[in-house]
Specification:
The complex is a heterodimer of chains A (about 70) and B (about 500). Chain A has a domain of about 30 residues. In chain A, about 60% of the residues lie in helices and about 0% in strands. Chain A has 3 helices and no strands. With about 500 residues, chain B is mostly helical. Helices cover about 75% and strands about 0% of the residues of chain B. Chain B has 23 helices and no strands. In chain B, helix 8 crosses helix 19. Chain B is globular. The chains are: A mainly alpha (about 70), B mainly alpha (about 500). At the A-B interface, helix 1, helix 2 and helix 3 of A face helix 5, helix 9, helix 10 and helix 13 of B.
Chain lengths: ~70, ~500
């Protein structure tokens, strides 16, 4: 998990740089959405899935308990 | 294609009714709040899950997201979405998950209300915290200014010029100031939640109505592709890959924005961040995709005189034009008056997100300066809240004055000053919350670096790059290096303080 999550984040960040769509407008999704815009729309939906995974795997449960405890002297 | 004269009285009535509702919500919240600083500035750290999600998103989405994005897309095409929206959908939730939760925990455990209070406590510093406050305040002001500009532009276009830009800006500034003044964080949060629901709902309706009015987006896209003057707007061929990469640094600013950082402290429970982190990308998609589409396709709306003039000017000079009103022009022209009023109110909802920034500045002033230098002990909490309210009036007045004289577009103002500066401030948060070895001198070095860079940016021409990268990249990396290097060379805070923060 320690390697998998950072690797996943790095790959996902790299996928944002979609140079292969740079000069292409077609195919137009739904007749009007250029390829680059469709790609980034789907990328954004993918972000939501990625965040759900991260919340499930990396939620800092101990942090809330720490915060609720009174500060140590 | 349909269409009518731009603007009218009916939309103005809807927008004014909307402003009245917003005022009522703020005043209703005021009735519930007490004159305690934590209650006024942080809603008593008691915001529930849905108000927290909707309000945090509404706080982040401003005139920049609605008017600035469509204006930028009008000039540069679909690249706008990748530059700001999809990069934010990736970076902002990550910041909330890793840094926002830490901020909440530190605030909850040690009773802090502002980021500077955390920095002062964590690094055992006093005046360095004041330096950070001054820079944060200076960087936040342009963001408040674009809210006033957005309000002026929106009301002016919706009313078809009946309400001039100066009066629209004044009205919006006065309404925002009033409910922040009376309602504090509770009022601001409830208004933001209401506004988020409004602009998420009406944004989609706006796309459908305008698309139909323009004769369908499919035919517009085909016409744009057939014309060499507009086909590049449906690709990113005129934008450099390095500049595109640079923009992924801008969303780092989200968590360093004082209004977002302070908002993170208002959650009742840390688990409220879960829903926010997961829904954030989808909310961004719902707001930005319609705005970018409409901004791009506005290049075919030559039947609207104001847009035709912009298109001609753009083609004649080969340079981008100020186009913050593109979305509003489309709306006023293609939607029936009653619907234009409803949709206009939805747009006003996003434009008026400057409320939380004004409140944040007031909170920072009263906590980081007024209270820190002993005035709270001398005069009490009621006077502190009263000073906070006076500060709200002053900030709004200054922002209004600047907005009336600003020459740049909303997008440029935000990107060049606020986003770049706050992105470069983000390493301070990481250093304070995650690195035991960070020191106040490292923080000071990074802060001075950001200040010098921001002042320098003021004198550089638009589109200035360094080795192809936008200024935000060297600013942020420089900030990281300085924080790290100077911290290595300077004495650490006491072990007791460090252990308090890292005893999780």
């Amino acid at each position: 998990m320690k390697i998998a999550i950072p690797l996943l984040l790095a790959v996902y960040y790299a996928l944002h740089q979609d140079f292969w769509n740079w000069t292409a407008a077609r195919p137009l999704a739904f007749g009007f959405l250029p390829a680059g815009l469709l790609y980034h729309g789907l990328y954004t939906v993918g972000c939501a899935a990625l965040m759900a995974l991260l919340v499930r795997c990396l939620w800092p449960a101990d942090l809330e308990a720490w915060a609720e405890r009174k500060p140590e002297e | 294609m349909g269409g009518k004269e731009t603007g009218g009285v009916t939309p103005v009535i809807f927008v004014l009714a909307y402003l009245a509702i917003v005022l009522y919500i703020g005043i209703f919240a005021f009735r519930r709040s007490r004159s305690q600083a934590e209650d006024y500035f942080l809603a008593g750290r008691s915001l529930g899950p849905w108000v927290f999600v909707l309000s945090l998103f509404g706080t982040h989405m401003t005139a920049f997201a609605i008017l600035g994005s469509s204006g930028h897309a009008f000039n540069f095409g679909i690249v706008t979405f990748g530059l700001m929206a999809s990069s934010s959908a990736f970076v902002v939730p990550l910041c909330l998950l890793f840094i926002g939760t830490r901020l909440w925990a530190a605030g909850k455990k040690f009773g802090h209300i502002t980021p500077v209070q955390i920095f002062r406590d964590r690094w055992e510093c006093g005046h360095i915290g004041t330096v950070i406050f001054v820079l944060q305040a200076a960087l936040l002001l342009p963001y408040i200014v674009i809210g006033v500009m957005g309000g002026g532009t929106a009301l002016s276009v919706i009313s078809g010029g009946l309400i001039p830009f100066w009066a629209g800006g004044l009205l919006v500034a006065a309404v925002v100031m009033s409910y922040v003044f009376f309602g504090g964080m509770r009022g601001t949060a409830w208004v933001n939640a209401f506004q988020t629901v409004l602009f998420l709902t009406f944004g989609l309706i706006a796309v459908f109505v305008i698309g139909n009015g323009m004769g369908g987006f499919a035919s517009i896209a085909e016409r744009m592709l057939a014309d060499p003057k507009t086909s590049h707007l449906l690709t990113r061929e005129k934008f450099s890959l390095l500049a595109f990469l640079s923009y992924t640094f801008n969303p780092l600013s989200a968590i360093a924005f004082p209004h977002i950082a302070i908002f993170c402290l208002t959650a009742k429970k840390m688990t409220q961040f879960k829903r926010t982190v997961m829904l954030y990308p989808l909310c961004i998609l719902l707001i930005w995709l319609p705005c970018v589409c409409l901004g791009v396709f506005a290049n075919q709306a030559t039947e609207i005189p104001a847009l035709a003039a912009k298109i001609d000017l753009k083609l004649a000079t080969g340079r981008p034009v100020v186009a913050d009103d593109v979305m509003l022009q489309l709306l006023s022209h293609f939607a029936p008056e009653w619907l234009a009023g409803l949709l206009g109110a939805g747009i006003m909802a996003a434009v008026m997100a400057s409320d939380s920034q004004i409140l944040a500045l007031s909170t920072m002033f009263t906590e980081d300066v007024f209270a820190y230098y002993g005035a709270r002990e001398r005069f009490g909490q009621k006077t502190q809240v009263a000073f906070g309210r006076i500060f709200i009036v002053l900030v709004t007045a200054v922002a209004y004055f600047i907005a009336m004289n600003a020459k740049a577009s909303i997008f440029d103002l935000a990107v060049q000053f606020s986003f770049a500066g706050f992105s470069a401030m983000m390493p301070l948060y990481v250093g304070a919350l995650f690195w035991r070895g960070s020191t106040k001198w490292g923080a000071l070095a990074a802060t001075v670096w950001v200040a010098v860079c921001t002042v320098s940016l003021f004198f550089t021409p638009r589109g200035f790059t360094i080795l192809g990268f936008a200024p935000v990249v060297p600013m942020t990396l420089g900030s990281v290096v300085l924080l790290w290097f100077v911290s290595l060379l300077t004495p650490k805070p006491s072990a007791n303080t460090v252990n308090r923060y890292f005893s999780v």
